[in-house]
Amino acid sequence: MKINTNDIRKMFLTFFKKKGHEIMASSSLIPENDSTLLFTNAGMNQFKDIFLGQNKNKYTRVATIQKCLRTGGKHNDLDNIGYSENHHTFFEMLGNFSFGDYFKKEAILYAWELLTSEKWFNLNQNRLWVTVYHKDQETYNIWINTIKLPKNKVVFIKDNKNSQFNSDNFWQMGDYGPCGPSTEIFYDTTNAYLNNSINYCTNTLKGQVEIWNIVFMEYNRTYDGQLIKLPIPSVDTGMGLERITRILQNKKSNYEIDIFEKIIKSIIQFNPNININEKKSIHIIADHIRSASFLISENILPSNEGRGYVLRRIIRRALRHAYTSGMNKLFFYKLVPTLIQAMEEESLLIKKREKIIQNILKQEEIQFNYTISRGIKLLKSKIQKMKGKILNGKTIFKLYDTFGFPIDLTADFCKEYNLKIDYEGFKKEMSLQKKQTRKSNMFKNNHELYIDIKHHSIFVGYNKYEIKSTIQQIFVNGISVKKLTVGESGIIILNQTPFYPESGGQIGDIGIILKDENVFEVKNTKKHGIGIGHYGILKSGEININQLITAKINIKNRILIQNNHSATHLLHSTLRNIFGENTVQKGSLVNDSYLRFDFVCYQKITIEIIQKIENIINYYILKNIPINTTIDTFNNAKQKGILALFHEKYNDIVRIVSINNYSVELCGGTHSSHTGNIGLFKIINEKSIGSGIRRIEAITGKNAVKFIQKKEIEIKNIINILNANENNVLDKIKILIEKNKILEKKIEYFTEIELINIKNQLIKKNQLINNINILIENVHNFNIKLLRTIIDKIKLNLNSSIIILTTVNKNKIYFIINISKTLNNNIQANKIAKKIIAHIGGKGGGNPSLSEGGGGEKIELLSSTLNNIKQWIIKKINQ
Ligand code: SER
Q1: Distance between CA atoms of 692 and 654, rounded to whole angstroms?
Q2: N-to-C CA span, the chain
Q3: 3 secondary structure, DSSP code
């Protein structure tokens, strides 16, 4: 019987449950509180703090199926897709973990049993062989003596490039963080294993698939490159679900397993012209629809920076392969239902947001089609201007980068014109850009981020605002110090604190830390791994490490913040009620003066809807409902369908904030005790901040009252100025506008008459010399716009003419010159402009028949300059 992917997921979890492991949920694809990672790249990410000894887990044995994305940083498989049968951008990682519980021997025994036991995966053990880090004799001995693998099947792997710990068998999450030696289990899909003395050490051996990586987490690599021994030796294992499925389903490629079979069938169905031998493109599309959909399901939207940019590139890469393989209709978004069906239980998030995902993918597709045609236009114009026979790298890269234009399409296009492309130049531009991207991807890299926190801080500020506490550590400019002196800024770590550290959109608390007359003013509070940092300045006296102090938050400020936070929850559920369950939160900010809430919404929000939102929220405020917080396990909360932000990392124990049944959310923030405390809710701003994302800004309580009062005063002032009353003010404004329109029309009419008069006066001053009309005059009180209008009128009356008009406005000279085209061989307006500027100053320019300028200040020279020019012209036309 064929075993399907979902069975394999279940078997893996059942096996480890039987071995005493707690089954935990996959964390989000977006790592929380970890600025070293763009995306979750391994099952161990969510346990990083536990490996580092900065946090404790309730369980010492855990198993998960983790959604991973490897599209950047230390683990990047993007370029392998389409060329490798074993790699994916998005994949699921089966993992078991031990936090100071079992170590090398059990980890290896468990893996071996699951893979080879008849009750479980029942793989032919003769096909299995392993690699071991060359300095890890203990692991080698386990494979040889306990598992009894023949010596030729245990291969030591050395450090690469002579650099210590830079080895395929020394695993690390990123440039910094937990790491350690690993042992990898490989499966031989060929008959090579029949040869008892086969050398698995050679690179040329085909058909070897790495299926399981068992890492012994023993070190932390710090950002300055040091390896520090971890407090508890732990185990982190990872087995790619798609790879083990491929082996168990006896397929030649990951892309032939059941999940991909369905997706690929769907791709071919939508694109009957696609060449099914063109596997590269098909694999890319099949891989990328998974990563794109999972990313959007976690609220990442395509954009031009950060995670959104990675998403956009993935989508475009898939679309370009569709395009070059002959697809010319929208289709990518139509793959989503098949994906949901293929991923079975793991598609829950996508299913929930199916419509949104489809919408976003469709928009990207439409936009890409549009950029392709713009790209072609640019390419054509470049080709027209080209001198040589090779299109330069810069242009190819611009097409690629700005217009999402595939290089093979550029090459194809150039071929029709007998042109080649400068591929090397393109690669150069590309690597230049990669360097820049790498730089901008290194998120915050400042001292604060790496302060070496050694103590745990407990937050007690949900119901306590002032407590006694002990100073554990002090930092100045990222360096640990023993004391702070007056005027010095620093970060203080306490063992317990009422200060809420900035997170989940809520800003950090402010307040004071004091010991008698020694006062440290806290200006912000932030999380630092296990500690909470109080940022501020010492206002008086001296503060020392280990001192017992009083920590006191600014209660007024906190109350304003928590009212805004509770109002944010009411707003969130109201938006979901009005626009539907798919109204996904995209971001929020809660501070003492206002709240900001970004959400996915494809609808325009009218004033009526704004008022409806306000009315509903104010209704719940008036009802003065108690706001309750309870504690539960994450799994229970998830089962109850409680609203959670999926980019947040939730620990096993979660806090649930409920306002009756109207709003129930997982939230670590601080809240009012009753909705009535919010007082009043008023939206002050609503706008779109990107495709499909809208932003609402609102205020509460006294701020809302003040806002309304200010508006009232503004209206009163308007009424007073108009000498109106509340009932007729609008009519009065309408009448004023009407009157204004009539007046404007009258002004236009009279200006026209005036201009005709001026024109006639000017024409009278025209001189006819050699059948050429010469009119050179200064007009009083004009501006450049009027000069242009009048010159247009004059030239209609004067054929074959040279007209120069000047005016002085606010002590600056402006001029305009018009010369009939038939005279341009002899006399050019731009040359005359230069002459004028040379005498009177200012700037200007134009073409031989029309030029203008202004800004010159030598008014006293204007009349002589015009005279000279006139003489020069007369001379010229008499020649
Ligand atoms: N962290 C290791 C890996 O990703 C094992 O889980 O390969």
Answers
A1: 30
A2: 105
A3: P
Write out the CATH class of domain 5-250: alpha beta
219-252 exposure pattern, b = at least 16 Cβ within 10 A, e = fewer: bbbeeeeebeebebbbbbbbbbbbbbbbbbbebe
- Per-residue pLDDT reduced to its tens digit, 25-52: 999 999 876 666 789 999 999 998 899 8
List, in sequence order, every residue forming a beta bridge with 84; answer none if it has no partner: 81
Tell me the three state secondary structure of residue 61.
strand
Of the two residues 71 and 22, the one the predictor is more confident about is 22
The CB of 240 under 6 Å from ligand 1? The reply is: no
Domain ranges of the chain: 5-250, 258-440, 451-553, 558-710, 765-878
Pick the range with the lowest mean pLDDT from 126-135, 424-433, 744-753: 424-433
Burial class (CB in 10 A: 0-12, 13-18, 19+), 650: buried
Residue nearest atom 3 in ligand 1 by C-alpha distance: 238
Token representation of residue 553: 């938050």
What number does the ligand 1 atom closest to the CA of 214 have? 5
- Residue to mutate, 12, 211, 237, ligand 1, most ligand atoms under 8 Å from C-beta: 237
- Compute the distance between CA of residue 811 and CA of residue 655 in angstroms, rounded to an integer: 71
pLDDT at 642 over 90: no
Could you write out the three-class secondary structure of 462-509?
CCCCEEEEEEEEEEECCEEECEEECCCEEEEEECEECCCCEECCECCC
- Under CATH, which number does the domain 765-878 receive? 3.10.310.40
Alpha carbon of 156 to ligand 1 centroid (Å): 18
CATH topology of domain 451-553: Elongation Factor Tu (Ef-tu); domain 3 (2.40.30)
Q: How confident is the model at residue 703 (pLDDT cuts 50, 70, 90)?
A: very high
Q: For 416-427, what is each residue's pLDDT tens digit? A: 688 999 989 998
**Ligand 1 contact via 178 beta carbon (within 6 Å):** no
- pLDDT, tens only, 545-598: 999 999 999 999 999 999 999 999 999 999 999 998 778 788 899 999 999 999
CATH pick for 558-710 out of 3.20.14.10, 3.30.980.10, 3.40.720.10, 3.40.50.150? 3.30.980.10
Task: For 110-226, list the strands marked E by DSSP.
Answer: 128-133, 154-157, 170-172, 177-188, 208-221
CA distance to 278, 614, 616, 684, per residue, from 607 (Å)? 53, 10, 14, 11
Of the candidates 113, 254, 124, the residue with the CA atom closest to the CA atom of residue 192: 124
Burial class (CB in 10 A: 0-12, 13-18, 19+), 86: middle
Mean pLDDT, range 794-807, rounded to an integer: 93
Mutation to probe ligand 1, out of 12, 26, 44 (largest number of atoms < 8 A from CB): 44
Q: How confident is the model at residue 335 (pLDDT cuts 50, 70, 90)?
A: very high
- What is the token pair recorded at 740? 């204004």
